[in-house]
Write the structure tokens for this entry.
Amino acid sequence: MLSIEHIREHPNEVREALKTRGEDDSITEILELDTAIRSAITERDNLNAERNRVSKELGQARSQGQGVSEEARVHMREIGNQADALNEKTKELGTRMSELMLTIPNLPQGDVPLGESDSDSVIIRQVGEPQIMDFEPKPHWDLGEELGIIDFERGTKLAGSRFYTMQGYGPKLERAVIAFMLDLHSTKHGYTEISLPAVVKRDIMEGSGNLPKFEDNLYHDVEDDLWLIPTAEVPITNLYRDEIIPANTLPIKYVAQTPCFRREKASAGRDTRGIKRVHQFNKVEMYQFVEPETSNDDLEKLVDDAEDVCRQLGFTYRVLALSTGDMGFASSKTYDIEVWAAGCQEWLEVSSCSNCTDFQARRSNIRYRAEGGGRPRIPHTLNGSGLALPRVIIAIMENNQQPDGSIIIPDVLRPYTGFDVIPAKAS
């Protein structure tokens, strides 16, 4: 959530920043509500002061044995009724203002590329070149079925389109990749592994910035008002909700593996083949609570942590700075990491790393005590996939396939898989 003080002091700057994100201008209504609320509060406080003054005078009159006129009683009631009405008005205005504030995205930083879509994002660097095979590589949807490790038909039978099952070497490979990434981040990169619920309350979704903006893209248990998480970012953001983090604690770095659930309504018709865009998938997520002064440097390090997974798996990959129109709702600056998949001949996004500045922490009422004391401050939050499956599985399968249809397992995964190759099925 943006600071109302910042909106109040820099309205035109905020308007222009939101325009670069393709957002409608709701700042005018917010400022009008802010003015009305402050005016109502001032009027209410004046009435309460008047009520206290008159009440004191009446009390003194009684203590001196003097009677209280009906006119004085009526005046007191009128003051009380007016103050109560202003209280209700303030609540109503405040509710509307809170609703609007929750719909405003974070403001992009000054060095974020301007643009309306992903076509305006900028490639920062590329590591490696797409490999050229001496045979016609197959896409993962063919490989998976031929090897008997991915079953699209039975997934659809169980849950509908964009679901699948894995068996045999498939789930073992995915489990190995997850374990490898968790160990890498927790032992080499300094993250603390954490286990999390896959369902959360409404206010937790609001704190991370998923509600109310993306309600249509979330799975919802209406009876208990619980929501299936689209990413571990959601519960981790709210670990310190309504708390003050002690001094000398930041940075706090967590890594978690969770299932993720997304309805993908906005992407209907896109990437329908294979397992590139599905409703349920596993993801390893990195998350940090950091000092505001270091957050952009910390973001660069977080991106490198994600890149390290790509390097160790032997991927060809590239890093993109997302444009203003392509960033996530809570982000002020985002880098995407895309890996090359030789079978489907595509760059596939496996990680999105963002600096959300104080946006999520403000929504979740998270503060921390600075080392030098003083008033509690609002930390910055960072998040990044480290990495997301099943696209990692796609890249491993397609880039390591052999002419006979077998798949060679990357060296770093072999201690986790217990096998070096997924053998081709005998014809």
The radius of gyration is 28 Å. The chain has a mean pLDDT of 94. DSSP finds 13 helices and 17 strands in the chain. Residues 121 and 322 are 5 Å apart (CA to CA).
